[in-house]
Design a protein that fits this description.
Protein name: Helix-turn-helix domain-containing protein
Distance between the termini: 88 Å
Oligomer: single chain
Largest sheet: 6 strands, mixed
Number of helices: 20
Organism: Streptomyces coerulescens
Helix content: 40-55%
Strand content: 5-15%
Structural class: alpha+beta
Radius of gyration: 33 Å
Pfam families: HTH_30
InterPro entries: CdaR-like_regulators, PucR_C-HTH_dom, PucR_C-HTH_sf
Length: 510
């Protein structure tokens, strides 16, 4: 290292007895051997003595701590002297300053041996310091890169969380500094890519690469195997679907196009589609590919019913209402813990917001049917937000949930969906109906049917590929099956609605 005060410290690797030690030292600069502790251990062996490295506050970084003169160490660390030599008590000691990447910090390398330092051992110490400084700089560069990657990842997540609570203005403002034009769109779709937790970082990098950074790629804070991608256009969506084609154990679910303010809804759609993708040979599915019950109900009547059900929420301020709606949508779709992770709030906050919605709507989210009904209303509220409402409805009889689900289209869809269960000789349909009536509780269902709880779970699990819907995980898929059962309400089967829903009776029966 030219320019140091220690005259022995010059560039080069020459020594009086060959360069074998120099070659060994250089091996520590190879990618597989970059470890300061290994270098210090090698130095101790090379000089047939002992070596240690401590930082500017006296903390041992590598090697074995030896008794040292604190004043002398402080002088070397401060740069008042570049190196020092000391002899006494049967040993010879060298102290050498090690420059850290941060110019204001420095370490001290202490090397001792029983015999005096000759030219060879002095060269070894000199060049070992150079290698240590290079390794420290490389470590700092790597650490800085990792910090930058983490900050970027955190920023992407923050943008997603702003979108989840419908704060698109702030989301665009945050994104504009690093990714100009990233959210320069009125509508977008959300995709969820599922792989293994070990490969998730690699999958996320590939998602960023194939979309040309035109999409918002986020490591899901709730599910370790998921990558969430907000895609502005169809070309980016095609690239994502092509990406998973050659990857084993990788699936993708995509939402319909939604406004940015409805990102939370689109996320729920993507997760629902992901469940279907597990049953598809191409491992991909899009939410719009499947017929959903709300599309089979008179839209005018559905809008009127939804408006009445959610009207109590209009009494709270707009921003608070948006938070309550976004939180409830996710809370009904996922667990409180996972919803909290996605939104970046505590699970207690999620529960408090949902309890407030329960109070306003006079319902009980502990009831599975009530969750399914409110989930339907929230979906309608989002999907029809931009549809002009009818102005003259004063002379119309308020529609009920029973009325909505009594139409021929929704009943035909329900019959076709649940008829698939009849092909199994285990009477999956009876088990599933009872399981829903018991609030998706396997133990209570088992008691009602007189079977083992594990049998109930196996029946429900067997129904999933038949219906192409995830049931045990809850969420949209389960709620659709609940609505199908409500549409085919059988008086000979366990009751699913009425007073048991915890909803106002007028909204259920009219």
């Amino acid at each position: 290292m030219a320019g140091r005060e220690d005259g022995d410290r010059r560039a080069g690797t020459g020594s009086t007895d060959g360069s074998a030690w120099a070659q060994e030292l250089l091996e520590h600069l190879r990618p597989h051997g970059r470890d300061v502790r290994r270098v210090v251990a090698w130095l101790a062996d090379a000089v047939e003595g002992a070596a240690s490295l401590q930082d500017d506050i006296g903390r041992l970084v590598a090697g074995t701590r030896a008794p040292l003169d604190e004043d002398l160490v402080a002088a070397v660390a401060a740069g008042r002297i570049a190196s020092a030599a000391w002899e006494g008590q049967g040993r010879h000691l060298r102290l050498v300053r090690v420059t850290y990447p941060n110019p204001s910090a420095a370490g001290v390398l202490a090397v001792s041996r029983r015999t005096p330092f000759d030219r060879r051992t002095s060269d070894i110490v000199t060049h070992t310091v150079q290698v240590i400084e290079l390794l420290l700089k490389a470590d700092e560069t790597t650490a800085a890169g990792l910090r930058l990657e983490q900050a970027t990842s955190d920023l992407r997540l923050a943008i997603l969380q702003l979108l989840m609570v419908e704060d698109t203005v702030s989301a665009r403002r945050v994104a504009a500094g690093l990714w100009p034009g990233l959210l320069d769109t009125d509508t977008a779709s959300v995709h969820v890519v599922e792989g293994t937790a070990e490969e998730r970082d690699t999958v996320a990098e590939e998602c960023i690469h194939v979309t040309g950074e035109r999409a918002l790629v986020v490591l899901c804070p709730a599910v370790d195997e998921h990558v969430i991608v907000v895609t502005p256009g169809e070309p980016e969506a095609r690239e994502l679907r092509a990406l998973i084609g050659g990857r084993p154990r990788t699936f993708i679910g995509g939402s319909a196009r939604n406004s940015l303010a409805r990102t939370a809804t689109a996320y729920g759609q993507a997760v629902s589609a992901l469940a279907v993708a597990h049953f598809r040979p191409d491992k991909a599915a899009v939410y719009a590919e499947r017929t959903h019950p709300e599309r089979l109900i008179d839209p005018v009547a559905l809008r009127e019913w939804t408006g009445r059900l959610l009207r109590p929420l209009d009494t709270v301020p707009h921003h608070t209402r948006a938070e309550l709606l976004a939180t409830t949508r996710l809370g009904l779709e996922f667990t409180a813990v996972n919803a909290a992770k996605v939104l970046g709030v505590s699970r207690n906050t999620v529960r408090a917001r949902m309890e407030r919605v329960e109070t306003l709507l006079r319902t009980d989210f502990g009831n599975l049917t009530a969750r399914a009904v409110v989930h339907l209303a929230l979906n309608i509220q989002v999907s029809q937000a931009d549809t002009p409402a009818e102005t003259d409805s004063s002379d119309k009889t308020p529609v009920s949930l029973s009325g909505l689900l009594s139409g021929p289209a929704i009943r035909t869809w329900s019959q076709d969906l649940l008829a698939h269960l009849d092909q199994d000789t285990r009477d999956l349909r009876r088990t599933l109906r009872t399981w829903i009536a018991e609030g998706a509780n396997a133990e209570r269902t088992a008691q009602t049917l007189g079977v083992h709880a594990q049998t109930v779970r196996e029946h429900v699990r067997s129904a999933e590929p038949v219906l192409e819907r995830q049931l045990l995980a809850g969420g949209s898929d389960l709620y659709e099956v609940v609505l199908a059962h409500l549409a085919l309400d059988d008086p000979d089967q366990p009751a699913l609605h009425g007073a048991k829903t915890g909803l106002p009776d007028s909204l259920v029966h009219g």
